[in-house]
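Reopening: ATP-binding protein still failing for me.
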Amino acid sequence: MRFPDLLHYSVDMPEDLLAQEVPPLIVQTMVENAIKYAVNMDEPIRITVEVAQAEDGEGHPRLFIRVKDTGPGFPDEVLGRLASEPDQAGSEGGEQIGIWNARRRLRLLYQDRATIDFYNEAGLGAVVQIELPMDKKAR
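Support: Ran it again with your exact input. Result attached.
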């Protein structure tokens, strides 16, 4: 790694969820975005991937994947664009193509049973939360 003291990471995932399948590149895309937009040469950053299981309101098991960083967070303009234009293939400058691709793949695989949300956690940085239906075979 080029700058070993500037980037720290952790993965918090219960062992019983290791067999749960996740679409390829979904998590990687979000981690790469965190590195691209949050890492700078002035101060270290931490990227954390958290994986958990919970039931929805109807008792169906759901997989929650959160990718969060300690960077400056999403600018308000980006959050607004992500919320209002979820089906747009990136912005005019070609940004957010990876996010658009991830959303599209989730929609193709799960229809309306998967979600991806973007927000800032007060005082901590950007958070991407992916919610997927759990594979019955892996539980």
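DSSP finds three helices and five strands in the chain. If you still see a failure, please send the error message rather than a screenshot.
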